[in-house]
Each structure stands twice: as structure tokens, then as C-alpha cells.
Amino acid sequence: MSNRVYEKDGVTILELKGTITLGSGDVNMRDKIKELLSQDHKKIIIDLGEVSFMDSTGLGELVAAYTTARHQQATLKLAQLTKKIKDLLSITQLAAVFESYETLDEAIASFK
Amino acid sequence: MSEVGPGRFHVHFSVPSDLRYTDLFHSVLTQLAQEVGIPEERLDWVTLALREAVNNAVLHGNKKDASKTIQVEFDADENEFVMKVWDQGPGFDDAVLGDPRNPENLFRPNGRGIFLIRQLLDKARFLRHRGGWFGLEMTVALNKKEESTQRQEAAHE
Hints:
The complex is a heterodimer of chains A (about 110) and B (about 160). Chain A is built from 4 helices and 5 strands; from the N terminus they run ββαβαβαβα. By secondary structure, chain A is an alpha/beta fold. In chain A, helix 3 links the parallel strand 4 and strand 5. In chain A, helix 1 runs parallel beside helix 2. By secondary structure, chain B is α+β, with helices and mostly antiparallel strands. Chain B contains 4 helices and 6 strands. The interface between A and B is medium-sized, with 22 and 21 residues.
């Protein structure tokens, strides 16, 4: 998995690419989010548009990231979910936990 | 792959208990998918289920003990594709598995693997036999789409 972090309109965007599975991308994502929170980023969007595959470990890392952010008074939202990831969030009822948006612009606008 | 009759096959792997084999089985399944007729729209779910089962066998069944072994079997006929993943652990009572959708579990980072397998495949059951091995059998119906198409066609008649 690869990632890119950039800022737009005061919002931090973590763009992920590849797979987020046990042993591949899970620790990378966790470490990146911890790093962003330690740098006091309070508005974070995870862009999942290029994530091709996610397993239960990946889902668990998203949940952990959400709760860690909340404990640090930061807000974490999701954008550009693929159909498969939407289905996974729906099946596990995590769709009710995460604020998620079809596009990045909508996700950014939601912070205003 | 060993043919066991017309339109049927059985293939069996035995590997050291190591997470690096999860990707290998993912690749094997992707290769087999067309051969056995797993519908393309279900392939990601079938591979996800297999990955979860192999990871569970290595981590929870064999407790990361590299001296232990996991076995993976694929069986297919014209009606169904069956995957079995065996480990050398003591097994567990699946009745104790909580529903990850319950409010008290929703924010837990783990506990979704078996749930996803059950949700995404047509059948999943634990097996407790074969010389102390503990297994998970997962079944994919191969004629689901055709049945659905037939039902739609019948409805239009």
C-alpha cells in the first residue's frame, strides 16, 4: 500500500492506494494516522478511492483510527469508497459509524 | 489439481503455519476461479473469506507456531465450490463468537473475520475431526446467478 498526505482548504487528506489487509497496509495506515494526530491535525479525510482490497483487519484499523481520532478531539471522515468497501461497511454496520462521502470535495465541504 | 471424476476436482495443500501463505492462496484461488466457475462478481468475497480463514488458522488456531501446519483443500463439482482450512489448534466453540454489529462490539478493532465469512459465502461450518485437526468448511454455490436469472425469466413469462 502507498499513501500520500496533503492539505486542502484546511483539511488533511490521507490518500491510500493498494490493499489494506493483515500484514499489507494495515500497519502503514495505523502509523500514518497516529503521525497525523500527533502533529495535531484535527480534520482528516481518508481517501479510499484507490484501495482495491480490504479485509477484516483493514476494517478494524479504520475503526481503531476513528476511535483514536475521537479521543484526541479530531474528526476522521471517509471519501470515495469503492462499491466493495461500501458493502463491507454496510454488512458490518460500520456504515453507521463513519461519516462518508462520494467525492473528496463533498467530504472537504462537510468540514465548513 | 487432481481430477476425481467428470466435472469434479480436488486439490490439497499443506504448508507451514505462516501468514505469507495467505497471499499464495489468494493467487491460487484467483487462478482457480475461472476453472470452477466462481462468478466474477463474487470472487472478491470468496478470496476475502479464504484470507480470513487462513489468517485465523495461523494466528488463532496454531498461535503463530511456525512448527505447525495448515492445510487448505479446494473441492468443486458443477454445483458448488468448497474450501476447507485446517489448523492444529484445539478449536473453539463458535457459539461464543459475538455479533460484531452489536453496539458493545461495534467499535472493537477485531472480531469480524468469521462473521464476514458467514455473511459473504453460502455456508460455513466448523469441523472437529480428522486426527485432531480443526477445520472451517466454506461453500460457494456455483449456480446462484443462473437460478436468479431463471427466476427473473420465469417472472417475465
